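Sequence in, structure out. Go.
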Amino acid sequence: MLARILLTATLSLQFIPPAIASDFGADDGGVTQGAYKADANAPGAVEQALTAVGAGSADEIKGRLFTYSITVFSPEVRAQAVAAFSASVDQRGITQGKLFRRVEKIFNCVLQLHARSGKIELFLYQHEIPKAMLWRGCVLALSTGLADPLSDDELTAIIAHELGHSYFEDEMASANLTKDARAMRVIELKCDAVAILSLKLLDRNPALHLRGLQRIGEINRRKGRSYSIFQSHPDLSERAQFSQRFIHLLQSSEVGLLDNSSRK
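Output:
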């Protein structure tokens, strides 16, 4: 409920608070290194995220992560959000061409998997830096610097990660209000779980999510920019550790299901 109040309150603003958006670019919606606090005595973010996601089959984990207690915005509100984002980047969205058709196809595939078709708007825009965010909860904004170099499966995972933020609106709002850096990192890792699981459910290689993150980091380094590391976001090593362990959990569950089936 708290997140829904915050989202409604920010609809008239040009920029949404960083807690409701994720950015894979070189900046991060105004989050600063000193803005968040961390509890040194709490379990690590990777452990917390894995515990929150839990074990089980891909379908069982999907039932826990892909929840439907989310904010659904009207077409009018989505149009206002598109216009606001367009103004914030001072350009219109790309709506035609080979890259747009490719991105739109991948975007629609992810929305269908998450039963969100027609509920989120796509905004592809020209920018050399890799950027992706869920803007105001209803606009998936992608820069050409991110969409163009990534493979289809890598882009699928990035889009699914951003969509995953809508499942954790209340947690994000609470963590942002209390400036809880560890909670924010856990949420980002849970969104990574959404991305990895989405690839698995689409019969793609789940490891391609991490490869996409690594590719984004390489692009930023080539352009002389850092990979958006803040106290409130996990670094690439944390994300790699989470990815490998979560994929192992999924694989172990599959082996267990096969063993149980063979005994019957």
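Check: The first strand starts at residue 121 and ends at 125. The CA atoms of residues 258 and 264 lie 10 Å apart.
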